[in-house]
Design goal:
Its EC number is 2.7.7.7. The chain is of the alpha+beta class and 406 residues long. It has 13 helices and 15 strands. It is 37% helix and 22% strand. Strands 5-6-1-7-8 form a five-stranded mixed sheet. Strands 9, 10, 11, 12 and 13 form a five-stranded antiparallel sheet that branches. A three-stranded mixed sheet has the order 3-2-4. α3 runs antiparallel to α4.
Length: 406
């Protein structure tokens, strides 16, 4: 029995989410990513492509190429919510699902042709995703993951493409060698130096030549160029950690700014835990100095998702870790060892009003945005503004909860 692999990819996912929330962005050039000079483009609308903008590009360069675009920092919580909605739709319909990223999915439909018809099934699944989520999505269908992924990229935007069994090489032949997954800029330049730019040339090359030039990776590239890929679908499981990082536009030793950043990240991640019905048992803090040396410390803790338990632990780790007093380039916080559960009252130091406070805060955040209500300790110059948040309180500042350190 031949394999049938479906690859689904949400088109310019972050941009599509922003447009779903604000229709004024439709048909306008939109760029989502870090808005500072060191920021990177996370997603760019098709309107920006003609200017040379693409994901992974430095935001500074994107501004020079397309200065009239709408620049948005983005909201990780919003994108996670939409991704989860699409994941649940797909997971309820396919036998085996692999979630390759927040906006990319593989499904093994092998054997379904005898009952339904894989292409018809995939088409109806795509229509359902568009109808229920409002997000554009493309798919490719073939006998393996590589050809399906390339087919999806050729089908975009918002379209679909099936490569019939036996036509994989013919489909790949006229395409650029850059279309093959794992062929990055360095490998592509090596091919260009050899006078090779298209896949059909690689298809005609002896495997021994590829091995002599690229080593063991040469076999993988050669097989993928010939439409050969036996990699299995890795069944989707819920993530076991969540994290947040902040790269400063200018390296700093401002301790107030650093502590505000740490507290803001910890508070937001705790909210993400509660919203997802998760508890964490391990806290990690990471520091990257201006010389790019990176250090981290972690601590095991009792399962919790409460701000007033997690934030002091994060601060304790930071104070123990930050000992070099050099300029800091990046800070990060990670909660791992996740398990399903909800925050429970600690009989020794919590009160019922604490739980009620969290419920009220989270209700406001879910309705109006992650940063609509926050602790005073998480405000200030070092706090990261998450998303393109419009305050619902008639232009008034966000609600601030005073936080007293014991």
């Amino acid at each position: 029995m031949n394999r049938t692999i479906l690859h689904l990819d949400l088109d310019t996912f972050f941009v599509s989410c922003e447009r779903l929330l604000d229709s004024r962005l439709n048909n306008k050039p939109v760029i989502v990513g870090g808005t500072g000079n060191r920021g990177v483009v996370s997603a760019a609308s098709y309107e920006t492509r003609s200017y040379g903008v693409h994901s992974g590009m430095a935001m500074k360069m994107a501004r020079q190429l397309c200065p009239h675009a709408v620049f948005i920092r983005g909201n990780a919580g919003t994108y996670t919510k939409f991704s989860k909605q699409v994941t649940e739709i797909i997971q309820g319909q396919v036998p085996i699902l692999e979630k390759a990223s927040v906006d990319e999915f593989y499904a093994d439909l092998s054997g379904m042709d005898r009952f339904f018809g894989c292409y018809k099934f995939a088409s109806e699944l795509r229509e359902r995703i568009i109808r229920e989520s409002g997000l554009p999505i493309s798919f490719g269908l073939s006998i393996n993951k590589t050809v399906s992924k390339i087919a999806t990229n050729e089908a975009k935007p918002n379209n679909q493409l099936k490569i019939d069994n036996g036509y994989e090489k013919a489909f790949l032949a006229p395409l650029s060698i850059q279309k093959i997954p794992m062929v990055g800029q360095k490998t592509y330049h090596t091919f260009c130096n050899m006078g090779i730019r298209y896949i059909h040339v690689v298809q005609q090359m002896p495997l021994e030549m590829m091995l002599s030039v690229f080593g063991k990776n040469g076999r993988v590239v050669w097989e993928r160029a010939n439409g050969i890929d036996q990699s299995p679908i890795v069944e989707y499981h819920e993530r076991k950690s969540i994290s947040s990082e902040r790269t400063y536009g200018r390296d700093t030793t401002d301790i107030t700014k650093l502590k505000t950043t740490i507290m803001a990240m910890a508070e937001n991640l705790a909210f993400q835990l509660r919203r997802g019905g998760k508890l964490t048992s391990c806290v990690t803090v990471k520091i990257r100095y201006s010389d790019f040396s990176t250090h981290s410390k972690q601590m095991k803790i009792p399962y919790t998702s409460a701000d007033h338990h997690l934030m002091p632990k994060v601060m304790e780790l930071f104070e123990n870790l930050y000992s070099r007093r050099l300029l800091i380039r990046l800070l990060g916080v990670r909660f791992s060892g996740l398990t399903s559960g909800t925050y429970q009252i600690n009989l020794f130091d919590d009160e019922k009003k604490t739980v009620n406070l969290y419920r009220a805060m989270d209700k406001i955040r879910i309705r109006y945005g992650d940063r609509s209500v926050m602790r005073a300790a998480a405000m200030g110059e070092g706090a990261r503004t998450i998303g393109n948040f419009t305050n619902p309180f008639n232009g008034e500042p966000p609600i601030v909860l005073a936080h007293r350190h014991q």
